[in-house]
Write a structure and sequence with these properties.
By secondary structure, the chain is α/β, with parallel strands linked by helices. The protein has helices at 27-38, 54-61, 92-99, 107-115, 130-143, 213-224, 240-249, 297-311, 317-324, 353-366, 389-395, 421-430, 441-451, 469-477; strands spanning 18-22, 42-47, 64-67, 80-83, 104-106, 120-125, 149-151, 163-164, 170-175, 179-181, 184-187, 194-199, 232-236, 254-257, 264-271, 276-282, 285-292, 335-339, 344-348, 372-376, 401-405, 434-438, 457-461. The chain contains 14 helices and 23 strands. The strands form four sheets. The protein has a ten-stranded mixed sheet, with helices on both faces. Strands 18-19-23-20-21-22 form a six-stranded mixed sheet, sandwiched between helices. Strands 3-2-1-4-5 form a five-stranded parallel sheet, with helices on both faces. The longest helix has 15 residues, at 297-311.
């Protein structure tokens, strides 16, 4: 019988030798695999979605991933099974593991048990920006020879790996608010032990997990209560919900942001075309200046948060910013996928309306004279609901041409509360934009290829594979000679 309660405690082996991952091909699970492999353990896994790039990444790690779920995947019997949060309670392989009484845990449970006990943890949480922020902090600590461990929900280009054990006392981890597993509905970040706890933002998201913004907020408050007295709460003062969380709970915190009331502040910021030159202050003192190789003010704020976070550990702010001038970004976060003499094609993870707005605003500053062509897939359980139907209109206004996929899959929102790409296209057309909605990726590729002009910048936004839209569009653009 499967147990579906956060209160359930499974006795885990102190020193497992063979770990098996069910739902192994997510970035997070790949990161856990890397951490276990660094300890010299044998790691196997299974998934139903075994395809590049994650299948290639796991193969490079040396992890044997079996296609599909089956009790046969549990032979030879592992000492520990780690069950990903994509796995449902009726999964036959998970059921077989529990029936066989093999010790099991969630991904964050495994990190908590086996990798955090002797570490000072820097946990980057928030509705947006946490992957980039975690990558920035990890890079600064590494470049400043602190030898950190880290666990990142993406592939940072400075490391080309999503996790690292490290020999230093610091461990940097992305604090995801999504649930841990079908048997543990707590947010992942409640498993971690923040010495420095960062909150970039707090908005309603993950409608399949959270009832409303109040529900989301309650979990972030629990997270911040984990920070010890001698630790640091670092919070973005520009976010109204985050400000109110600090006020209502009387949290002792340092704030960062664009507002003058913040402890850590951005007082100068302009896009040079090669990056954003920024000046950081604390109080009335200029503490760091430099050219950040990023796009958008949200990434400048991420850099400021990274500088402030490592300041608690004793790294000089200017040295931290100097390290960030060498930051190479994260896969699928404003990643230039294809450039030829005519067209720039960019892959981005944005899906929440706030992320879409900041991403497109950043590209508008970087390319003020060029047309922006935005391609968007409403794929998450939140974006496929109508809750943000009107808000998306404002988010897409920095773009000139917008191609929208209708929500994929035969998915039905509660009470028929379904997002309409067609309605969004109509609303954007009424605002003077060229906007169209399409039933599939083939139609999007045809439309974009026909309407492109020389020097256009194409931004593809999805938190999924988008049916290989990027390579399909790239192929169409190879001989673009207009």
């Amino acid at each position: 019988m499967l147990i579906e309660t956060a209160e359930f405690k499974c006795v885990l082996p102190a020193n497992p030798r063979h770990v098996h991952l069910i739902g192994a091909c997510g970035v997070g699970m790949a990161g856990v695999a890397g951490l276990f492999l660094s300890r010299g353990l044998s790691v196997t896994g299974s998934d139903e979605a075994v395809y590049p790039p994650m299948s290639d990444y796991m193969a490079r790690l040396g992890v044997n991933i079996r296609q599909g779920y089956s009790s046969a995947n549990l032979s030879p019997r592992p000492d520990l099974v780690v069950i990903g949060n994509v796995i449902k309670s009726d999964n036959n392989e998970a059921r077989a593991a529990l029936d066989a009484e093999i010790p099991f845990t969630s991904m964050p449970g495994a990190i908590e048990k086996y990798f955090l006990d002797d570490k000072l943890c820097v946990v980057a949480a928030g509705s947006h920006g946490k992957t980039t922020l975690t990558s920035m902090i990890s890079w600064v600590l590494y470049d400043q020879e602190m030898d950190p461990g880290f666990m990142i929900g993406g592939l940072p280009a400075n490391f080309d790996t999503s996790s690292r054990l490290g020999k230093g006392e610091l461990f940097v981890i992305e604090g995801d608010e999504y649930d841990s597993a079908f048997f543990d509905k707590r947010p992942k970040f409640l498993h971690y032990k923040p010495f420095v706890g960062i909150v970039t933002s707090c908005e309603f998201d993950h409608a399949d997990i959270y009832k409303d913004l109040t529900h989301v907020r309650e979990e972030f408050e629990k997270f911040l209560r984990l920070v010890p007295e001698n630790g640091l709460i670092l919070a973005c003062n520009d976010d109204p919900v985050v400000r109110d969380i600090l006020r209502v709970n009387n949290f002792r915190a340092e704030t960062y942001g664009l507002s003058a009331e913040s402890h850590w502040n951005v007082t100068e910021m302009f896009d040079t075309g090669a990056g954003i030159y920024a000046t950081f202050t604390k109080g009335s003192d200029v503490i760091a200046t430099g050219l950040l190789p990023v796009i958008g003010r949200h990434n400048v704020l991420n850099a400021l948060a990274a500088v402030a976070a490592v300041g608690k550990i004793g790294i000089d702010p200017q040295k931290a910013l100097n390290s960030l001038t060498l930051f190479k970004g994260v896969a699928r976060r404003q990643q230039v996928s294809n450039v030829n003499s005519n067209i720039t094609l960019i892959d981005d993870f944005a899906h929440h309306p706030s992320e879409v707005r900041e991403t497109l605003a950043g590209f508008r500053l970087r390319f003020p004279q060029k047309r922006l062509v935005a391609i968007f897939e409403p794929r998450t359980n939140t974006s496929r609901r109508s809750i943000f139907q009107e808000e998306y209109v404002e988010s897409f206004l920095p773009a000139d041409v917008i191609a929208l996929r209708e929500p994929p899959d035969p998915w039905k929102a509660p009470d028929g509360d379904l997002f309409s790409s067609g309605q969004l296209a109509d609303d954007l057309t009424a605002r003077g934009k060229m906007a169209r909605a399409f039933p599939d990726v083939s139609a999007i590729v045809d439309f974009v290829a026909l309407c492109l002009r020389p020097e256009d910048v194409v931004i593809v936004m999805s938190n999924g594979g988008f049916e290989n839209l990027i390579p399909r569009l790239s192929k169409r653009l190879e001989d673009f000679k207009r």
